[in-house]
Design a protein that fits this description.
It contains 7 helices and 8 strands; from the N terminus they run βαββααβαββαββαα. It is an alpha+beta fold and 197 residues long. A hairpin with a 3-residue loop joins strand 7 and strand 8.
Length: 197
């Protein structure tokens, strides 16, 4: 008997590399965009198939980028690599952020943009697929493949992740000593809200 379909909504956001992997690995928690959406809920992170431009490659050679990327073993292109929850979108004009933080370095916080805030990011084995503009809807087969890969159950919600990156976030308490958190995961004034389980 065929399993019933998932009752969860899922959208997909295509992001250029290395920003897709930085978000997937929780090196940043916000994705800055020139547009916003009324959608809130599960979003799969899809890495664009386009190779970095010369300008983007130069950015990746800066110290903060090099430090973060050194912790990522693989940078897939043209694949869905993680699933997280889009919880809020804030106009950057009203967004307080430490300009020396990695979060600021990994985004474009000009006043006319929007910060999409993600939580609960779960890495998955890359699923090769073509991307699309905007926040797009996967077909039913891809929808199920992604949610199964992310450990979601049709009846009981997400299963506990065994991925070390995800496990590290899941065991952090609501109140924590910043000295105990690896420096690479400190992201400015949004820290406590972003790292709260």
């Amino acid at each position: 008997m065929k399993a019933p379909p998932f009752q969860r909504n899922l959208r997909v956001l295509t992001i250029r590399q290395p920003w897709a992997s930085l978000l997937a690995h929780r090196m940043k928690f916000n994705e800055t965009r020139s547009w916003q959406t009324g959608y809130r809920g599960l979003v799969a992170v899809h890495s664009s198939s386009g190779q970095p431009t010369a300008e983007e490659a130069a950015l990746c050679d800066k110290p903060l980028f090099k430090a973060a990327l050194s912790r990522i073993s693989e940078i897939p292109f043209g694949a869905i690599i993680a699933v997280g929850t889009l919880e809020a979108i804030t106009p950057t004009a009203y967004f307080e952020i430490d300009r020396s933080s990695m979060e600021y370095a990994f985004g474009d916080y000009q006043p006319d943009r929007y910060a999409w805030h993600f939580t609960g990011m779960r890495l998955i084995d890359p699923i090769d697929t073509k991307g699309s503009l905007g926040l797009w809807t996967p077909d039913l087969e891809l929808h199920e493949r992604v949610l199964v890969a992310a450990g979601f159950d049709r009846d009981q919600g997400p299963k506990p992740s065994l991925n070390p990156t995800n496990a590290r976030r899941e065991i952090w308490p609501a109140r924590y000593d910043p000295q105990e958190v690896p420096r690479l995961f400190l992201t400015g004034r949004m820290n406590k809200r972003q790292l709260k389980p």
